[in-house]
Design brief:
Layout (H helix, E strand, L loop, with lengths): L13 H13 L11 E6 L5 H12 L3 E5 L12 H9 L5 E6 L4 H5 L7 E6 L5 H18 L8 H10 L5 E5 L6 H12 L3 E5 L11 E3 L11 E4 L15 H8 L3 H4 L5 E3 L12 H4 L6 H20 L3
Parallel strand pairs: 1-2, 1-3, 3-4, 5-6, 5-8, 6-7, 8-9
Helix pairs in contact: 1-6, 1-11, 2-11, 5-6, 5-7, 5-11
Length: 311
Protein backbone atom coordinates (compact mmCIF):
# COMPACT_ATOMS: atom_id res chain seq x y z
CA UNK A 1 0.00 0.00 0.00
CA UNK A 2 1.37 3.40 -1.02
CA UNK A 3 2.40 5.78 1.74
CA UNK A 4 -0.24 8.42 2.34
CA UNK A 5 -0.21 11.68 4.24
CA UNK A 6 -2.99 13.94 5.53
CA UNK A 7 -1.95 17.46 4.61
CA UNK A 8 -5.32 18.84 3.53
CA UNK A 9 -8.89 17.57 3.24
CA UNK A 10 -8.47 16.82 -0.49
CA UNK A 11 -6.13 13.96 0.52
CA UNK A 12 -9.31 12.03 1.36
CA UNK A 13 -12.07 11.12 -1.08
CA UNK A 14 -15.72 11.61 -0.15
CA UNK A 15 -16.10 7.83 0.27
CA UNK A 16 -13.08 7.74 2.58
CA UNK A 17 -14.57 10.55 4.65
CA UNK A 18 -17.83 8.60 4.93
CA UNK A 19 -15.80 5.59 6.08
CA UNK A 20 -13.97 7.69 8.70
CA UNK A 21 -17.27 9.14 9.93
CA UNK A 22 -18.85 5.70 10.16
CA UNK A 23 -15.90 4.49 12.24
CA UNK A 24 -15.99 7.62 14.40
CA UNK A 25 -19.55 6.81 15.41
CA UNK A 26 -18.48 3.37 16.70
CA UNK A 27 -14.81 3.62 17.61
CA UNK A 28 -13.88 2.98 21.24
CA UNK A 29 -10.91 2.50 23.52
CA UNK A 30 -11.31 -1.26 23.17
CA UNK A 31 -10.15 -0.99 19.55
CA UNK A 32 -6.40 -1.25 20.18
CA UNK A 33 -5.44 -0.90 16.53
CA UNK A 34 -2.33 1.15 17.35
CA UNK A 35 -0.94 -1.35 19.83
CA UNK A 36 2.89 -1.47 19.82
CA UNK A 37 3.10 1.58 17.56
CA UNK A 38 4.92 4.82 18.34
CA UNK A 39 4.03 8.30 17.19
CA UNK A 40 5.82 11.63 17.45
CA UNK A 41 4.13 15.00 17.85
CA UNK A 42 6.09 18.08 16.74
CA UNK A 43 4.19 21.31 17.35
CA UNK A 44 6.13 24.44 16.41
CA UNK A 45 3.10 26.54 17.46
CA UNK A 46 1.16 26.48 20.73
CA UNK A 47 -1.84 24.19 20.93
CA UNK A 48 -4.21 22.91 23.59
CA UNK A 49 -7.03 21.16 21.74
CA UNK A 50 -5.31 19.69 18.70
CA UNK A 51 -2.18 18.43 20.44
CA UNK A 52 -4.01 16.95 23.42
CA UNK A 53 -6.69 15.50 21.16
CA UNK A 54 -4.19 13.66 18.97
CA UNK A 55 -2.25 12.34 21.96
CA UNK A 56 -5.40 11.11 23.73
CA UNK A 57 -6.66 9.57 20.48
CA UNK A 58 -3.42 7.62 19.99
CA UNK A 59 -3.31 6.45 23.59
CA UNK A 60 -6.97 5.43 23.47
CA UNK A 61 -6.07 3.05 20.62
CA UNK A 62 -3.08 1.56 22.45
CA UNK A 63 -0.34 3.60 20.78
CA UNK A 64 2.58 5.37 22.41
CA UNK A 65 3.23 9.09 21.93
CA UNK A 66 6.55 10.90 22.16
CA UNK A 67 6.12 14.68 22.28
CA UNK A 68 9.08 16.67 20.95
CA UNK A 69 9.61 19.70 23.19
CA UNK A 70 10.48 22.33 20.59
CA UNK A 71 11.89 24.80 23.13
CA UNK A 72 14.44 22.22 24.29
CA UNK A 73 15.08 20.50 20.96
CA UNK A 74 17.88 20.99 18.45
CA UNK A 75 15.64 23.31 16.43
CA UNK A 76 16.34 25.87 19.17
CA UNK A 77 20.04 25.48 18.26
CA UNK A 78 19.38 26.21 14.60
CA UNK A 79 18.69 22.74 13.23
CA UNK A 80 16.50 22.90 10.13
CA UNK A 81 13.06 21.30 10.21
CA UNK A 82 14.21 19.05 7.35
CA UNK A 83 17.06 17.69 9.46
CA UNK A 84 14.75 17.39 12.46
CA UNK A 85 12.26 15.39 10.41
CA UNK A 86 14.95 13.14 8.94
CA UNK A 87 16.41 12.50 12.40
CA UNK A 88 13.04 11.60 13.89
CA UNK A 89 12.20 9.46 10.87
CA UNK A 90 15.39 7.45 11.48
CA UNK A 91 13.85 6.46 14.83
CA UNK A 92 11.12 4.69 12.80
CA UNK A 93 7.90 6.18 14.17
CA UNK A 94 4.65 5.01 12.61
CA UNK A 95 3.57 8.62 11.96
CA UNK A 96 4.55 12.19 12.76
CA UNK A 97 1.88 14.73 13.68
CA UNK A 98 3.04 18.30 13.19
CA UNK A 99 1.96 21.93 13.40
CA UNK A 100 3.93 24.85 11.98
CA UNK A 101 3.44 28.59 11.54
CA UNK A 102 4.52 28.37 7.88
CA UNK A 103 2.04 27.22 5.25
CA UNK A 104 3.38 24.20 3.39
CA UNK A 105 5.70 22.99 6.16
CA UNK A 106 4.01 19.56 6.64
CA UNK A 107 4.07 18.91 2.90
CA UNK A 108 7.76 19.88 2.85
CA UNK A 109 8.47 17.33 5.61
CA UNK A 110 7.05 14.48 3.52
CA UNK A 111 10.26 14.64 1.45
CA UNK A 112 12.32 13.53 4.46
CA UNK A 113 10.14 10.84 6.02
CA UNK A 114 9.03 7.32 5.24
CA UNK A 115 6.00 7.43 7.55
CA UNK A 116 2.72 9.36 7.28
CA UNK A 117 2.78 13.07 8.08
CA UNK A 118 -0.46 14.24 9.68
CA UNK A 119 -1.02 17.99 9.52
CA UNK A 120 -2.16 19.54 12.80
CA UNK A 121 -2.28 22.98 11.18
CA UNK A 122 0.11 24.92 8.94
CA UNK A 123 0.06 28.70 8.84
CA UNK A 124 -3.09 30.03 7.23
CA UNK A 125 -3.20 27.07 4.85
CA UNK A 126 -4.97 23.99 6.23
CA UNK A 127 -6.21 22.17 9.32
CA UNK A 128 -7.78 19.00 7.92
CA UNK A 129 -8.78 17.19 11.11
CA UNK A 130 -10.46 20.34 12.44
CA UNK A 131 -12.60 20.53 9.31
CA UNK A 132 -13.43 16.83 9.62
CA UNK A 133 -14.54 17.16 13.24
CA UNK A 134 -16.53 20.29 12.40
CA UNK A 135 -18.41 18.53 9.60
CA UNK A 136 -18.92 15.46 11.81
CA UNK A 137 -20.41 17.68 14.55
CA UNK A 138 -22.81 19.25 12.06
CA UNK A 139 -23.75 15.90 10.53
CA UNK A 140 -24.52 14.23 13.85
CA UNK A 141 -26.61 17.24 14.94
CA UNK A 142 -28.73 17.37 11.81
CA UNK A 143 -28.86 13.57 11.53
CA UNK A 144 -30.34 13.32 15.02
CA UNK A 145 -32.97 15.94 14.15
CA UNK A 146 -33.97 13.99 11.03
CA UNK A 147 -34.22 10.65 12.86
CA UNK A 148 -37.32 9.85 14.88
CA UNK A 149 -36.56 6.14 15.36
CA UNK A 150 -34.74 5.67 18.69
CA UNK A 151 -33.34 2.34 17.49
CA UNK A 152 -31.29 3.91 14.68
CA UNK A 153 -27.56 3.56 15.31
CA UNK A 154 -25.24 6.50 15.85
CA UNK A 155 -23.44 5.51 12.65
CA UNK A 156 -26.62 5.73 10.61
CA UNK A 157 -27.56 9.04 12.26
CA UNK A 158 -24.17 10.46 11.30
CA UNK A 159 -24.30 9.25 7.71
CA UNK A 160 -27.88 10.42 7.24
CA UNK A 161 -26.81 13.77 8.62
CA UNK A 162 -23.87 13.91 6.24
CA UNK A 163 -26.23 13.29 3.31
CA UNK A 164 -28.56 16.02 4.63
CA UNK A 165 -25.78 18.63 4.66
CA UNK A 166 -26.45 19.44 0.99
CA UNK A 167 -28.25 22.76 0.96
CA UNK A 168 -27.47 23.64 4.56
CA UNK A 169 -26.25 27.22 4.95
CA UNK A 170 -23.27 28.27 7.04
CA UNK A 171 -21.79 31.66 7.85
CA UNK A 172 -18.08 31.52 8.64
CA UNK A 173 -17.42 34.68 10.62
CA UNK A 174 -14.22 36.49 11.48
CA UNK A 175 -10.58 36.53 10.45
CA UNK A 176 -11.01 34.52 7.24
CA UNK A 177 -7.80 35.73 5.64
CA UNK A 178 -5.58 34.29 8.38
CA UNK A 179 -7.61 31.16 9.15
CA UNK A 180 -6.51 27.65 8.17
CA UNK A 181 -9.76 26.46 9.77
CA UNK A 182 -11.78 28.59 7.34
CA UNK A 183 -9.77 27.35 4.36
CA UNK A 184 -10.18 23.68 5.25
CA UNK A 185 -13.87 24.08 6.05
CA UNK A 186 -14.59 25.94 2.82
CA UNK A 187 -12.90 23.18 0.83
CA UNK A 188 -14.62 20.34 2.71
CA UNK A 189 -18.11 21.76 3.24
CA UNK A 190 -18.58 22.80 -0.38
CA UNK A 191 -17.70 19.22 -1.44
CA UNK A 192 -20.71 18.04 0.53
CA UNK A 193 -23.05 20.68 -0.87
CA UNK A 194 -23.05 23.17 2.00
CA UNK A 195 -23.80 26.78 1.02
CA UNK A 196 -21.01 28.95 2.50
CA UNK A 197 -21.05 32.68 3.20
CA UNK A 198 -17.93 34.41 4.55
CA UNK A 199 -18.72 37.24 6.96
CA UNK A 200 -15.94 39.64 7.93
CA UNK A 201 -14.59 43.17 7.58
CA UNK A 202 -13.20 43.67 4.06
CA UNK A 203 -9.60 43.56 5.31
CA UNK A 204 -10.22 40.11 6.84
CA UNK A 205 -11.23 38.67 3.46
CA UNK A 206 -9.36 37.62 0.34
CA UNK A 207 -10.52 37.46 -3.28
CA UNK A 208 -12.88 34.54 -3.58
CA UNK A 209 -15.86 33.20 -5.51
CA UNK A 210 -17.54 32.31 -2.21
CA UNK A 211 -20.35 34.65 -1.15
CA UNK A 212 -19.27 37.38 1.28
CA UNK A 213 -20.98 39.78 3.67
CA UNK A 214 -19.72 42.58 5.90
CA UNK A 215 -22.31 42.35 8.66
CA UNK A 216 -23.60 39.22 10.41
CA UNK A 217 -27.05 40.73 10.93
CA UNK A 218 -27.52 40.94 7.16
CA UNK A 219 -27.35 37.14 6.76
CA UNK A 220 -28.67 35.87 10.10
CA UNK A 221 -32.13 34.98 8.72
CA UNK A 222 -30.66 32.86 5.92
CA UNK A 223 -28.31 30.47 7.72
CA UNK A 224 -28.47 27.21 9.69
CA UNK A 225 -24.96 27.28 11.18
CA UNK A 226 -22.54 29.95 12.39
CA UNK A 227 -18.85 29.14 12.66
CA UNK A 228 -17.12 31.93 14.56
CA UNK A 229 -13.36 32.35 14.28
CA UNK A 230 -10.76 33.90 16.52
CA UNK A 231 -9.24 37.22 15.53
CA UNK A 232 -5.67 36.06 15.04
CA UNK A 233 -3.77 39.14 16.19
CA UNK A 234 -0.51 37.18 16.27
CA UNK A 235 -0.67 36.91 12.46
CA UNK A 236 -1.19 40.65 11.94
CA UNK A 237 1.80 42.87 11.31
CA UNK A 238 -0.19 45.90 12.50
CA UNK A 239 -3.60 46.40 14.10
CA UNK A 240 -6.02 46.56 11.21
CA UNK A 241 -9.27 47.48 12.97
CA UNK A 242 -10.24 50.33 15.27
CA UNK A 243 -10.73 48.19 18.39
CA UNK A 244 -11.92 44.73 19.38
CA UNK A 245 -15.06 46.38 20.75
CA UNK A 246 -15.81 47.90 17.34
CA UNK A 247 -15.22 44.52 15.74
CA UNK A 248 -17.49 42.76 18.26
CA UNK A 249 -20.35 45.19 17.60
CA UNK A 250 -20.71 43.77 14.09
CA UNK A 251 -19.36 40.24 14.30
CA UNK A 252 -19.80 38.84 17.82
CA UNK A 253 -22.40 36.07 18.06
CA UNK A 254 -24.75 37.31 20.79
CA UNK A 255 -28.02 36.29 22.42
CA UNK A 256 -29.61 39.42 20.98
CA UNK A 257 -28.43 38.47 17.48
CA UNK A 258 -29.58 34.84 17.60
CA UNK A 259 -32.85 35.39 19.42
CA UNK A 260 -34.90 32.19 19.16
CA UNK A 261 -33.52 31.18 15.77
CA UNK A 262 -32.72 27.50 15.26
CA UNK A 263 -29.04 28.06 14.46
CA UNK A 264 -26.12 26.07 15.85
CA UNK A 265 -22.86 27.82 16.75
CA UNK A 266 -19.37 26.36 16.36
CA UNK A 267 -15.87 27.66 17.05
CA UNK A 268 -12.48 25.93 16.67
CA UNK A 269 -11.15 27.56 19.86
CA UNK A 270 -9.72 29.23 21.71
CA UNK A 271 -12.66 31.62 22.03
CA UNK A 272 -12.21 35.31 22.71
CA UNK A 273 -15.24 35.71 25.00
CA UNK A 274 -17.56 38.58 24.09
CA UNK A 275 -15.48 39.25 20.98
CA UNK A 276 -16.17 36.09 18.96
CA UNK A 277 -19.13 34.76 20.98
CA UNK A 278 -20.76 36.25 24.07
CA UNK A 279 -21.05 34.52 27.43
CA UNK A 280 -24.77 33.81 27.06
CA UNK A 281 -24.37 31.95 23.77
CA UNK A 282 -21.40 29.99 25.11
CA UNK A 283 -23.79 28.64 27.77
CA UNK A 284 -26.63 28.08 25.25
CA UNK A 285 -27.56 24.57 24.06
CA UNK A 286 -27.18 25.76 20.47
CA UNK A 287 -23.45 26.23 21.06
CA UNK A 288 -21.62 23.02 20.07
CA UNK A 289 -18.05 23.92 21.05
CA UNK A 290 -17.62 21.22 23.69
CA UNK A 291 -19.18 18.66 21.33
CA UNK A 292 -16.54 19.68 18.80
CA UNK A 293 -13.81 18.98 21.35
CA UNK A 294 -15.32 15.59 22.22
CA UNK A 295 -15.77 14.71 18.56
CA UNK A 296 -12.20 15.84 17.86
CA UNK A 297 -10.78 12.97 19.91
CA UNK A 298 -12.98 10.42 18.14
CA UNK A 299 -12.32 11.81 14.66
CA UNK A 300 -8.57 11.70 15.31
CA UNK A 301 -8.86 8.14 16.57
CA UNK A 302 -10.48 7.22 13.25
CA UNK A 303 -7.94 9.23 11.24
CA UNK A 304 -5.01 7.52 12.98
CA UNK A 305 -6.64 4.14 12.47
CA UNK A 306 -7.18 4.93 8.78
CA UNK A 307 -3.59 5.98 8.15
CA UNK A 308 -1.71 3.79 10.62
CA UNK A 309 -3.98 1.10 12.05
CA UNK A 310 -3.71 -2.68 11.97
CA UNK A 311 -6.38 -3.16 9.33
Amino acid sequence: MALRHLIQTSDLSNDEIRHIFARTANISESDKVLQNKRFITIFFENSTRTLSSFEIAIKNLGGEVIRLDIANSSTAKGESIADTAATLNAMQPHAIITRHKSAGAPNFLTQFTSCPIINGGDGAHAHPTQALLDLYTMATHFGSLDTKDSNVSQQEICLRGLDSMRGKRIAIVGDIKNSRVANSNIALLTRFGVDVTLVAPPHFLYKTRIKTAYNLRKVIDNIDIIMALRTQTERHNTQIYGSLKDYANRFCVTKDLLGNRDIIVLHPGPVHRNIDIDDEILADSRCKILQQVENGVKIRMSVMEFFCGNS
